[in-house]
Amino acid sequence: MRRARTAKKDDIAKEKEQISLDDVACEKCGGADHPEWILLCDSCDKGWHASCLRPAIMLIPEGDWFCPPCEHVSTYWTKFKFTL
């Protein structure tokens, strides 16, 4: 059986975690509205609305997703390795 003090700390920790997940803002527009459409980059963990990307993404992709800046760096290094 949990003591009230322990249960309260657990509830506070869960609430803080939920707040931090909901407060992810889009790097492009700065908005945190429509969090279900914010994609998190698997490299830098920054958020982007699917509609703020160019071209816009209409379906949430499965698997890893990388934001435009991280994708650019990855593409650059891939091309750089092949030119050496």
Automatic annotation (TrEMBL):
List the molecular function annotations (GO) for this entry.
histone binding; zinc ion binding
Highest taxon in the source lineage: Eukaryota
Q: Which GO BP annotation is one of this protein's?
A: negative regulation of DNA-templated transcription
One GO CC annotation, please?
RSF complex
Q: Which InterPro entries match?
A: Rsf1-like, Zinc_finger_PHD-type_CS, Znf_FYVE_PHD, Znf_PHD, Znf_PHD-finger, Znf_RING/FYVE/PHD
List, for all copies, the residue spans of the domain called PHD-type. Answer: 23-73
> Where does the chain cross the membrane?
none
The protein's name in its UniProt record? Histone-lysine N-methyltransferase ATXR6-like
Q: Which organism is it from?
A: Diaphorina citri (Asian citrus psyllid)
Query: In the record, what lineage is assigned to the organism producing the protein?
Result: Eukaryota, Metazoa, Ecdysozoa, Arthropoda, Hexapoda
